[in-house]
Every structure is written in structure tokens, then in C-alpha cells.
Amino acid sequence: MHYAVLSTGSCGNCYIFHENDKALIIDDGVTFTKLTKGLENHGIPMSDVQAMFITHLHPDHSKGVGVFQRKTKLPVYLSDIAMNGNGDVIEKQKISREELVPYSFGEMIRVDGFTVHPFRTSHDSAGSAGYYIESDDGVRIFLMTDTGVIPDDAAAYAEKADVKFIESNYDENMLENGPYSVQLRRRISGTYGHLSNRCAVDFARRVSHQGDSVYFVHISANCNSPDVLRDYAMKEIPSGIFCRVCERGETFEGFRDAR
Ligand SMILES: [Zn+2]
Ligand SMILES: [Zn+2]
What we know:
Blueprint: E1 2-7, E2 14-19, E3 22-26, H1 32-41, E4 49-53, H2 59-62, H3 65-72, E5 76-79, H4 80-85, H5 87-92, E6 100-103, E7 109-111, E8 114-120, E9 129-135, E10 140-144, H6 154-160, E11 163-167, H7 172-176, H8 182-189, H9 197-207, E12 213-217, H10 226-236, E13 242-245, E14 252-255
Parallel strand pairs: 3-4, 4-5, 5-6, 10-11, 11-12, 12-13
Antiparallel strand pairs: 1-2, 1-14, 2-3, 7-8, 8-9, 9-10
Helix pairs in contact: 6-9, 9-10
Bound molecules: zinc ion (2 copies).
């Protein structure tokens, strides 16, 4: 499995998974140019892409979807709740509703090369989702971003995953003393907001085993510091678990075989 993060954070999110000439994209909060260049840079032909899955319809995760649909005609999967609860957003982002593929939570979705299990997240965007993905070669990926609290079924998926992408949005002190209004601070730290470093690192520590890889993503530019998060993660997470803080907007890639 070859995986790449084309961008992460409020500036745009896009994650790519590639194995045996089959690729899957999660989220498209980047321009089509950036997406195609990114695929090219990582040696992944667009013709390998089987499908796209969207976590939720905030623009940093979905602003590229409309153009992606028009250019590629590939299936874009979204939860049925997100599809029914975001009419104006879908319109505004010029997403073609007819070409969206809705799924229900609890459903298991099969696309060529991958089996995808969506799970609910807790965010101020109707029908928001995280994903647990099993590749045909047996690599297991967990991706959870934009969630105020950790959903009940997330831990069971995360424990099984070899590679985990976990939102670590804000440092509690930096949020409290940062530039945001009280309302915005309450939104971010609320049940339908984002995950703190403390929650993310604690969760990662609980669900990780020796040999796992953990990537902390969706780092806030204003209320977090990659150094603070890195120091904290290094202190809390046992050695033998590969940990990496993905800075805002950063591109990187990794490789993984099944255990
Ligand atoms: Zn976001
Ligand atoms: Zn969001």
C-alpha cells in the first residue's frame, strides 16, 4: 500500500491510498490542478482511481468535488444523511447530486481493491463520517477527522488498523488564550467541533500496537503548534509505534505492507 496526504488542515484535505493499480481518494478540499499534480508526483495515474469518499461537506473537505465529478465521472460516496441534510451546501459547491453515491452508516462498501466501512463522527455538518478501509492485500487504514468527541465504534476500528490518521486540531491552552472569540472557541472545543491534542494522543495511545503508524492531521494554524503536539505525542506514545505530525498544508507519503 502506498498512501499520500496531498494536504491537511483547514486549507484543504485530501488523502490517497494506492495498491495494485487501484486507488481511492478520501476528501477533496483541493483544486483539481493540485489533485492531478499530486497524483502525478506520487506516480499514481488518474485511471487507477476507483472512487472518492467524502467525510463531510465543509469546503476544506469537499470544495473540489464538483470539478472532480465533471472531469472524471468517477463515483463520489457520501452518507445519505449528509446528502439529505446539506441541500444548500451541495448546490453552493456545485456538486452534482445525481452523481453522488449515498451510503447508510453500518453499510460496508466494496470498490475495486478496497472494502470501506464508514462510521459516524460528531461534527457540525450533517452526516459527517470517518472511514475504516481494508485493502485487498490486507492493509488496514483508519481515518477520523473533524469530530468533537470520539465516536463509540471508532476504537474497535482503530485497534484493527495498521495505519491511523487522527485529527489533532488544537492545544487546549492555545485555544483558550488564542485569537478566537468565545463563541468560536466553544464551537471548536464542543461536542460537534474538533479534537484536542490531549484527546487525539490519548486515543492513539489506547488503540495502537507495536509496529503501527499514527499520523496526526488537521492541525490548526492558530491554536496549535506542531512542536507542542510532537513533544506531547513522543512523551505519551510508546516507542515502537511510528508517530508523525502532519503540518498544515503539508504533502507526504508512506508505504505499508500487511502485518
Ligand atoms: Zn476540516
Ligand atoms: Zn469540518
